[in-house]
């Protein structure tokens, strides 16, 4: 079970995933050795990972939410084929175990990028149905963490971590927030390395990019300051009260969509809320303590939102991939 210090450390890493153990210790009022031990224990027992993620709009990409259905005998093979791809994240096995839901990132303007992916899948996966939903706007998730995983620090502690260079989760972008950046091959190598391990040492990042450690530090500071890269946490949500995981597909009248989505983003039970294309125009990811809590939320939480005209629930049976590459891609490095 997680105690107060564990939860505070998780919250702190949400704010600054690359804060040193010394910085974290100052905020948490413990020794750096205690922070180091807790961090290693959370990695081993709670599947904690810090990952660096590019802002898809600033780096010239767009995101699709795919729903794929396959034969029962081949659904897991299809899911693992998606896991192995570098352009996918959040690969879930849902429903009765024959549906796979995944997020796909494609270069901006690529014609039918999700269709190209389907042509690249093994012919033996037994694909029986496909729907692709363009993620148009996220109200909760990505830069904004699930409230139950980031509710342990006082406002003063949060300000101590934000410091003068970066504020909020992952840094406050400049006014050029949506101006696409020109990235070099070394920039992409840096982002790939941080997606594997958001706390990789500067020396390791230098080896991956071919830059000097000083250049890596300057470039990383710049990418964070302009919002092109931010840091997120992967952790087993069951330890934070999210044992039951459900995807919610909703239909809301367009005139009420922004109002409803913004309201749902304030619900403690939701970790992700986004506007999508398709027959359902709002998708959310619910995390509840147990099935009784889920029932209560569906009936007394979502059930009171009159603007939701249709609701489909899809229980998540397995999470095969989160935002970072599969941990089996390689052992995490030591960092401080």
TrEMBL record:
Residues 252-319 form the Transcription regulator AsnC/Lrp ligand binding domain. Pfam families: AsnC_trans_reg, HTH_AsnC-type. Residues 2-43, 187-224 form the HTH asnC-type domain. GO terms for cellular component: cytosol. GO terms for biological process: response to amino acid. SMART domains: HTH_ASNC. PANTHER family: LEUCINE-RESPONSIVE REGULATORY PROTEIN (PTHR30154), TRANSCRIPTIONAL REGULATOR AZLB (PTHR30154:SF34). This is Transcriptional regulator. It comes from Streptomyces lomondensis.
């Amino acid at each position: 079970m997680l105690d107060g210090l564990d939860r505070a450390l998780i919250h702190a890493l949400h704010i600054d995933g690359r804060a040193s153990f010394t910085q974290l210790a100052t905020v948490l009022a413990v020794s750096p050795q205690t922070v180091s031990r807790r961090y290693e224990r959370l990695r081993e027992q709670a599947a904690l990972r810090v990952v660096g993620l590019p802002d898809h709009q600033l780096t010239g990409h767009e995101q699709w939410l795919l729903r794929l259905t396959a034969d029962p005998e081949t659904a897991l093979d299809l899911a693992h084929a998606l896991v192995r791809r570098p352009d996918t994240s959040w690969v879930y096995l849902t429903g009765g175990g024959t549906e796979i839901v995944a997020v796909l990132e494609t270069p901006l303007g690529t014609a039918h990028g999700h269709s190209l992916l389907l042509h690249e899948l093994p012919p033996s996966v037994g694909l029986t149905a496909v729907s692709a939903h363009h993620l148009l706007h996220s109200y909760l998730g990505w830069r904004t963490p699930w409230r139950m995983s980031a509710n342990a620090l006082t406002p003063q502690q949060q300000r101590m971590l934000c410091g003068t260079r970066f504020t909020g989760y992952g840094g406050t972008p400049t006014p050029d927030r949506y101006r696409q950046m020109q990235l070099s091959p070394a920039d992409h190598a840096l982002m790939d390395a941080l997606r594997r391990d958001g706390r990789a040492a500067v020396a390791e990042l230098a080896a991956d990019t071919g830059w000097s450690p000083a250049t890596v530090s300057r470039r990383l500071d710049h990418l964070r300051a302009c919002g092109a890269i931010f840091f997120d946490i992967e952790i087993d949500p069951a330890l934070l009260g999210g044992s039951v995981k459900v995807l919610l597909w909703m239909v809301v009248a367009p005139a009420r969509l922004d109002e409803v989505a913004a309201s749902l983003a304030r619900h403690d039970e939701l970790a992700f809320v986004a506007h999508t294309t398709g027959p359902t125009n709002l998708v959310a990811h619910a995390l509840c303590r147990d099935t009784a809590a889920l029932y209560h939320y569906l009936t007394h939480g979502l059930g009171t939102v009159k603007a939701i005209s249709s609701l489909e629930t899809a229980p998540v049976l397995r999470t095969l991939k989160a935002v970072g590459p599969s941990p089996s891609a390689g052992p995490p490095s030591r960092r401080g």
